[in-house]
Amino acid sequence: MTTATLPFGVDLYKDWVAREGLRVHEGLSLNLLRAETGDWPRFGVKGAALHFTGGGDFCSQFLFDIPAAASTNPVHHLFEAICFVVEGRGSTELEFADGTKRQFEWGPRSLFAIPLNAKYRHFNASGTQRALIVATTTAPMVMKLFHDDNFVFNVPYEFAGRIGRESYYNGDGDLHMIRAGHNTWQTNFVADLADIKLTAYDERGPGSLNIKFALADSPMHVHVSEIAPATYKKGHRHGGGTHVLTLSGGGYSLLWRPGDKDFERVDWEYGTVFPPCDQQFHQHFVTSENASRYLATGLGGISYVFTAQQRRTGGGGTANAMGKVSVKLGGDQIEYEDQDPRIHQIWLEEMRKRGITPRFELPQKSS
After folding, report:
1. pLDDT tens readout for residues 73-93
2. CB 213 within 8 A of CB 187
3. 312-347 pLDDT, tens per residue?
4. 72: part of which helix (H) or strand (E)?
5. Phi then psi for 279, rounded to 5 degrees?
């Protein structure tokens, strides 16, 4: 009788990352523009895997660092990929099972989705500068489910329903006005997230704006929010794995759990990314005269809710979303008048140091 080997406590996703030889970044936050990358043979360019403290169980991010005049290898895979262009200009070519192709050009702050299992490659259009793309993916979940590289990267099945209309790849789309905080732009490509029109979301704070995205009929959560100049949003919490990436403006975020003595702090600028941990309260503060936009990506979108927790928070446009209901009423949002008094004082001091006049006064707590 032979003795069988029993795997114990294996992280199948991290095992795969190690086999890929990827440079790995860990920690609370990272500025993508300063991240080190290394050779990634599968894609034929430099890359890195981003494993944040609050990354959760389902998603991670990959960096593609494409040298001047170079391109990635053609690849297809069974995990989702939502791509954001951090810097550079180029194009992406998609090839489908019948041999047809679609190609679109991108630049800084472009957003697009790779239809599930479609073959694709990225091309850098510059002859002198690199292109840097970050992709939020479901690779951790998929690798843990199948733990078979050949299956994940070589299954020939085409998910035809994921391709979408041809016009979705030239910036066209459909706007679905559902309600504040849930209004959604359905497309596969956005040329520049700095230019896209957002809709009012005052429940999160004065002057707050927001738009959600439905990309490639995927189950991914994608939204862009904007915080008005010299203001800040209400504190709130949700599940882990929502990667927050700064698009414009400057400021910081505070993160904490109930009972914590101190706050964790992330200072951000363009290219800074961090995901708050599962059920960790977090609050975003602008310390500039300009509005600040950020991109949030994770699993569990407006169309396809992945967990019961996401449905409770407001996934799928749920009318009784607890994500914008006060914690005093059993929800997940802290109203301004109920927040820790230190929070406002910290922000006022930051504004004073920068010589910026606050455009927000803290509401008085009702008796």
Report:
1. 999 999 999 999 999 999 999
2. yes
3. 877 766 656 788 899 999 999 999 999 999 999 999
4. none
5. 60, 25
Q: Is 273 in contact with 53 (CB distance < 8 Å)? A: no
Nearest to 227 by CA among 323, 275, 293, 324: 293
Residue with tokens 């964790």: 264
Task: Tell me the two tokens of residue 318.
Answer: 């749920």
Per the CATH hierarchy, to which homologous superfamily does domain 12-167 belong? Jelly Rolls (2.60.120.10)
Beta partners for 255?
Answer: 264, 282
Domains of the chain, by residue range, sit at: 12-167, 175-354
The CATH H-level superfamily of 175-354 is: Jelly Rolls (2.60.120.10)
Q: Name the H helices within the chain.
A: 12-20, 139-146, 149-154, 308-313, 341-354
pLDDT tens digit string along 304-317?
988 888 888 777 66
pLDDT at 366: 59
**pTM: predicted TM-score of the whole model, two decimal places:** 0.95
Distance CA 41, CA 44 (A): 5
- The string of pLDDT tens digits covering residues 34-43 is 999 999 999 9
**Nearest 10 degrees: CA dihedral of 164, 178, 135, 27?**
-170
Residues, the chain: 367
Residue 285, CA atoms < 13 Å, CB-side half-sphere: 22
